[in-house]
């Protein structure tokens, strides 16, 4: 799950977040280049699993709209408890790292 970054009432950072300013174009869709690698990887996973829908907080909730956050936030338990799968990019340090990144594995010592 990605969380919004609001400073002084303004969404900070990522241009790919859904905001009031880009809500209408979002309804028309967007291409791969509009998303950071981690989100694109998650969409690829969903497609490979044959899933038609995917919930990404940063895209599905208007980040600079308190009313939308209150409405959608109240539905989060239902959304996640009804999910067929939950994808976590646990080894990624940012939304730009991707899900399929290399990591070092340290063998366990007995």
UniProtKB/TrEMBL annotation:
Residues covered by the Heterokaryon incompatibility domain: 31-106
Signal sequence coordinates: none
InterPro entries: HET
Alphabetical list of Pfam families matching this protein: HET
Region (Disordered): 90-110
Record-given protein name: Heterokaryon incompatibility domain-containing protein
